[in-house]
Amino acid sequence: MAAVSGAIHARDDSLNVNVPFHLAVIMDGNGRWATERGLPRQAGHRAGVENLRRVIRACTEFGVRILTIYAFSTENWARPGPEVRGLLAILEMVIDRELDDLDANGVQLRHLGRLEGLTPKLQEKVKAAVYRTRNNDRLTLNVAFNYGGRDEILRAMRRIVSDGISAEEIDEVLFNNYLDTAGEPDVDLIVRTAGEMRVSNFLIWQAFYAEYYATPVYWPDFDKDELLKAFQVFQGRDRKYGGLSTKQKPTNE
Ligand code: IPE
Ligand code: IPE
Ligand code: MG
Questions:
Q1: Domain enclosing residue 116, as ranges
Q2: Among 48, 66, 97, 248, which one is least packed by beta carbons within 10 Å?
Q3: Which of 18, 76, 105, 136 is catalytic?
């Protein structure tokens, strides 16, 4: 359960590309995708779910081990009631329709965020899905729903205090294990679709040295080829972690 630094990569030889161990995606642009087609925003969210199915499959093929998806933020409650209800309905539909397939494909579901705020029925469905898939180990799918990075950190702090942990005992490994992602390594790559260049309260702790990739492509159109492009860019990054480049020879020795 120790926290591991995020510098681990699986290599997919058939693709000749380094694949991030922990990929996180801010699935943005569903609304704009729909509006540009003269469709209601909910149609964009439905198209987003279709695409998610494709991206999950691509991640299992490419050898990504952890995929964290941002599906609903603690700020998204600010949207109009019908859209919020539509997004909750989509989560329920995904669990109802996709769980058998996800389970059969070795996907372990985890939930990041607050369950409170969801209907009791939906809370039970999420808990049951997490429990049913707990021993799967091909891909961990963290679903960030009613998730905020600040909220997660505050919840962790409250539990640390209520567990009576002393100040001296608190270090990064301990703190990591109080987060919703307990036991998982840090994020290697964050992909944000639809062109925005902001973090939007996503994985504030876990992304401390994540590489960031932003593309103008809307989420419903972000297919396997787009994912591969992101991995190629990721492969070219020089992850220095504050040190010196491993790609250049030191000249001052
Ligand atoms: C992302 O698409 C999905 C959620 C935030 C739930 P948006 O709904 O934010 O799409 P845009 O940004 O309005 O295009
Ligand atoms: C981030 O997208 C949240 C999710 C993708 C769930 P938003 O569309 O809510 O983010 P902002 O409002 O552009 O920051
Ligand atoms: Mg958006």
A1: 22-233
A2: 248
A3: 76
